[in-house]
Design goal:
317 residues; alpha+beta; D-amino Acid Aminotransferase, Chain A, domain 1; four-stranded parallel β-sheet; 9 helices; 16 strands; 31% helix; ATP binding; metal ion binding; ATP-binding
Length: 317
């Protein structure tokens, strides 16, 4: 019997629901595991003894899941832990969260499973500075970049750039999302504010289109994203209703470099953003280890969700 497949996400994640549908049609025993229900709604037990290998059980929704049997995991959208409301003040609640994190992290390390993506690799790969270093080493062109909380360093970088400069945040959530912006003259006056938190400054790369390249294992799904005239040119996510999306054929050297980057980052899945310049250069912007892909699949028909399901089913033996 194939082992259960663990999908770590939540019920409102449309990407998880899409892949769970593919898995169900393949007859797989796929389980949605929401870390946001720990420890309040899900019971977790890990047991060791001198004579046997470890044992683990997670109890939720009337099911007891044998965690030691798991062989395939999709680390999609882990949620913050939810502690019991009757706990005391912030100190007690913080202690409960920390203890839950310690237990659950230990569980992930115990699993004899393959991951899309391994949580530790996923965490490292999300680091923007690390991405750029490895992208350059694998032969990809990258933008000139300065990440700093030093106002003087920011001003020096901006002054040295011959063209426009964009700036962006290191991370984003659904609640706190910030688009990439061009630095205007009136904003340059307020550069002292970077002392509060580091900011990413980059040269602006003029392009004929953006590209979203979704990689699943050795499969590469590339799509061009072309904004209409007057659309927001610094971040296609701002004007998604104003873009044309189409399948795109990457040059073989760029595809090889992207696969090499994935290997260097230790990723099975990645959503990569590139920009194609008028001169035909492909410029690496960033990679999201758990980036969105349905908006591409719905338009192009590229079977990204099916590819994820196929990898997981192949591992669940």
């Amino acid at each position: 019997m194939p082992s259960p497949i663990l999908v770590i996400s939540h019920t409102h994640d449309i990407h998880a629901i899409e892949v769970l549908g593919h898995l169900a049609r393949r007859g797989a025993d796929a389980v949605l595991f929401d870390t946001g229900r720990l420890p309040r709604e899900t019971r977790l037990t890990i047991a060791h003894d001198p004579l046997h290998d470890w044992r683990g059980a997670a109890q939720f929704d009337g099911r007891t899941l044998d965690m030691a049997a798991i062989r395939a995991v999709w680390w999609r959208r882990p949620q913050p832990f939810a502690v019991h409301a009757e706990l005391g003040g912030p100190a007690d609640q913080g202690f409960a969260v920390a203890e839950t994190h310690a237990a659950v992290s230990g569980l992930w390390s115990l699993l004899d499973a393959r991951w899309i993506n391994d949580p530790d690799a996923d965490d490292r790969a999300a680091r923007k500075a690390w991405q750029l270093k490895l992208a350059r080493q694998t032969g990809l062109r990258i933008p000139r970049t300065c990440m700093t909380n030093d106002p003087d360093a920011a001003r020096a970088f901006i002054a040295a750039e011959p063209g426009r400069v964009i700036y962006k945040a290191f991370s984003a959530t659904e609640q706190l999302w910030r688009e990439t912006r061009v630095l205007n003259a009136d904003e340059a006056v307020g550069l002292d504010a970077v002392r509060y938190a580091p900011v990413i400054f980059q040269e602006f790369i003029a392009g004929t289109c953006d590209l979203r390249v979704t990689i699943v294992g050795s499969q590469v799904f590339a799509a061009s994203i072309t904004a209409s005239a007057g659309a927001y040119e610094y971040d296609f996510r701002v004007s998604m209703g104003d873009v044309a999306i189409a399948a795109h054929d990457l040059p073989a050297p760029i595809e090889r470099a992207l696969l090499a980057l994935m290997a260097a980052l230790g990723l099975v899945y990645g959503a990569i953003d590139l920009r194609l310049t008028p001169g035909g250069d492909y410029v690496f912007l960033e990679i999201n280890p758990a980036g969105q892909w349905l908006f591409v699949e719905h338009v192009t028909g590229q079977p990204i969700g099916a590819a994820i399901a196929d990898v997981l089913v192949g591992w669940a033996v």
